[in-house]
Design goal:
Layout (H helix, E strand, L loop, with lengths): L1 E2 L2 E3 L8 E3 L28 E3 L13 E6 L5 E5 L4 E4 L4 E5 L2 H5 L4 E6 L5 E5 L2 E5 L4 E4 L10 E6 L5 E5 L2 E5 L4 E4 L18 E6 L5 E5 L4 E5 L2 E5 L10 E6 L5 E5 L4 E4 L4 E3 L11 E6 L5 E5 L4 E4 L4 E4 L10 E6 L5 E5 L2 E5 L4 E3 L9
Antiparallel strand pairs: 1-12, 2-8, 3-4, 5-6, 6-7, 7-8, 9-10, 10-11, 11-12, 13-14, 14-15, 15-16, 17-18, 18-19, 19-20, 21-22, 22-23, 23-24, 25-26, 26-27, 27-28, 29-30, 30-31, 31-32
Length: 362
């Protein structure tokens, strides 16, 4: 379905209370009955909180889940319930994509750009493509297993990998093809949303695809062969949240309950177990232009690894909160941190509210 763009006014929007996304509440509202078997854990979706988001002209009622700057310098903000916001170097725009997306608290969980400069969004209403002029939405009627997308990447061949709550799909620009993982569920697995879900994809330098599953560890795929990583052979937790390859070829793994570790191809280094990193819930890996590795630890702010030591940044150093939703480096080398209460920015010297450096974000 092809859609034209409608721009929503950037006037101040009233502060309101809204429900958190169910995945954000997993630690506080697990249904005890489902946690005792292999069925997905149930989450309370009615948690309300007072919103204090301080940036993007009042258009964000919860938080920004994804930040992306495209090849033309345009900023894209994927929100958790308020759709897509764009800064086109002139003004902030809230984009009205469709009634289903905008009318049902559209959440954006992935933003990528292909070699043709098309922007792709993995959302709660399907896969959305922007070709520079118009938006196009692909959903179940087009071949997706489900419109609820959590994982999204493009491989070296230009193939788009989509992780939904009902399984994986590959998209070649014309057709969706289902892709199945081995049915080797670990004992007592506890998926948070679906045991068919892949949260994150990674294609490493060797062409191996990594699949971060919901409660079933990680699968590696190369030459039509699968290898599974779980707690039994190196992972700190079977509920993995993020996977990332740095410029040296190390694989960083963040989990929901086991902290952060690094895999060099033969051994795992568990930084949380060794007491170097605080907090069991880690993700949002990002490598800056200087080779520093950044990641967040829930309720403990962010960490930066310079190759030798870790440095922790919290509200004491200027973060809006110690709970971070996304980390992103822009084309100026500035590091952006999206939080529940706004966006913070690190310019290489200090962390401040992003509006202190980028005035258009007020």
């Amino acid at each position: 379905m092809v859609l034209t763009i409608f721009v929503v006014s950037c006037k101040e929007q009233e502060t309101k209370e809204k429900s958190k996304d169910n995945i954000e509440n997993y630690s506080d509202s697990i249904d005890e009955k489902s946690s005792q078997n292999n069925s997905p854990l149930n989450y309370n979706q009615n948690t309300v909180f007072q919103q204090k988001h301080s940036n993007l002209n009042g258009m964000v009622s919860e938080f920004v889940r994804k930040i992306y700057q495209d090849k033309n310098g345009t900023f894209w903000f994927g929100t958790n319930g308020d759709g897509i916001i764009r800064y086109n170097n002139k003004s902030l725009e809230g984009l009205n994509i469709s009634e289903d997306f905008n009318g049902n608290a559209g959440a954006v969980r992935g933003i990528i750009e292909d070699k043709m400069a098309n922007i792709w969004f993995g959302t709660s209403s399907g896969l959305i493509k922007y070709d520079g002029k118009k938006f196009e939405i692909f959903s179940k009627q087009d071949g997706l297993p489900s419109k609820e997308i959590w994982g999204l990447t493009i491989d070296e061949e230009g193939l788009i990998w989509v992780g939904t709550t009902e399984g994986i799909s590959q998209f070649d620009g014309k057709n969706f093809t289902n892709f199945s993982l081995p049915k080797t569920l670990i004992k007592d697995s506890k998926p948070m949303l679906s045991d068919k879900l892949v949260f994150k994809f990674l294609e490493d330098k060797n062409g191996t695809m990594w699949f971060v599953t919901d409660g079933n560890g990680i699968y590696k795929y190369k030459d039509h062969n699968f290898t599974q990583l779980t707690r039994s052979n190196g992972l700190t937790d079977n509920n993995v949240a993020d996977v990332f390859e740095d410029s040296k070829g190390n694989i960083w793994i963040g989990t929901f309950n086991g902290g952060v570790s690094k895999y060099d191809g033969s051994t795992f280094s568990d930084f949380t177990k060794d007491g170097i990193i605080n907090g069991p819930e880690t993700y949002n890996f990002c490598e800056d232009n200087n080779g520093n590795i950044w990641f967040s630890a829930e309720n403990y702010g962010v960490y930066r690894y310079d190759g030798e030591e870790f440095t922790q940044f919290t509200t004491k150093e200027g973060l809006a909160t110690n709970t971070i939703q996304n980390i992103f480096e822009d084309n100026k080398g500035q590091i952006w941190f999206s939080t529940w209460e706004g966006i913070s920015l690190y310019d290489g010297k200090e962390i401040t509210n992003v509006s202190d450096k980028e005035h258009w974000t007020k």
